[in-house]
Amino acid sequence: MDGLDSAQLRTLAAVVAEGSFDAAARLLHVTPSAVSQRIKALEETVGQVLVRRARPCVATDAGRPLLRLAGQLALLEREALADARGPLAGGGRIRVAVVVNADSLATWFPAALARLPQRAGLSFDLRQDDQDHTAELLRDGSVTAAVTAQREAVQGCRVLRLGSMRYRTLATPEFAAAHFAKGLTAAALASAPLVVFDRKDRVQHRFIRAVAGRPLDPPVHYVPSIPAFSEMIRLGLGWSMVPEQIAEADLTAGGCVDLAPGRHLDVPLYWQHWRLESDVLNALTAAVRAVAAETLR
């Protein structure tokens, strides 16, 4: 079989990243017909359909390894070009795509990016997903690295333990008195309104099962925004599990109480990234590990 064409691989990455052939064409400054021809030629080389023509376009199972390869080649190419041109010539910015769970993104992860040298010329494409699902984007090649709850290494990746994010049970004093006067009983947990980030977020239900000894189905508010999520709790609309770094301010101010003092839920987090000898990835990994060691359990 002939070798893979780098322009075709870049086009595959653009189609999946932008979601359509037309958008990829605009990004690459070519016609949609040229994009279609490149994808067709790549599919003929491999002998498999690589892109599912949908809205948005997504890589097929056969396309995922090539999508990952395209991202790896692009990163190494930009690093090599920057090194060859030198700092005075301006090697261009290097874009790194990383997927992070919402709670890490709202607390400790930005500090890791700030640890990187500003002269590194990095641009970050941060994606957000639940910690139990972030590895999927790493698996399909959409991102370079991930903060994830998955301890098993994705194929072609390295995995490092970061620590655990601790969650506390928060509600207003009035909400606690109205719904949990007798404590965290199964009846109270089944009836008290619960605030949940989105339908992938299972942290609260995991805690409920640990306390009640069985799954329960309480009324749920879905609030996919960290500021609004916290505000819903402060306004007494429900209770929830809140990252310790965010919970401390509300507990100290007295606006919220801990429904289960001394009891918490720790969620282990891992850092997974492509198995590449890359200065950018090495620097990013070192920064992430350093900040995680300072902030996570």
TrEMBL record:
<feature type="domain" description="HTH lysR-type">
    <location>
        <begin position="4"/>
        <end position="60"/>
    </location>
</feature>
<comment type="similarity">
    <text>Belongs to the LysR transcriptional regulatory family.</text>
</comment>
<keyword id="KW-0805">Transcription regulation</keyword>
<dbReference type="InterPro" id="IPR036388">
    <property type="entry name" value="WH-like_DNA-bd_sf"/>
</dbReference>
<dbReference type="Pfam" id="PF03466">
    <property type="entry name" value="LysR_substrate"/>
</dbReference>
<dbReference type="InterPro" id="IPR050176">
    <property type="entry name" value="LTTR"/>
</dbReference>
<keyword id="KW-0804">Transcription</keyword>
<keyword id="KW-0010">Activator</keyword>
<dbReference type="InterPro" id="IPR036390">
    <property type="entry name" value="WH_DNA-bd_sf"/>
</dbReference>
<protein>
    <submittedName>
        <fullName>LysR family transcriptional regulator ArgP</fullName>
    </submittedName>
</protein>
<dbReference type="InterPro" id="IPR005119">
    <property type="entry name" value="LysR_subst-bd"/>
</dbReference>
<keyword id="KW-0238">DNA-binding</keyword>
<dbReference type="Pfam" id="PF00126">
    <property type="entry name" value="HTH_1"/>
</dbReference>
<dbReference type="InterPro" id="IPR000847">
    <property type="entry name" value="LysR_HTH_N"/>
</dbReference>
<dbReference type="InterPro" id="IPR017685">
    <property type="entry name" value="ArgP"/>
</dbReference>
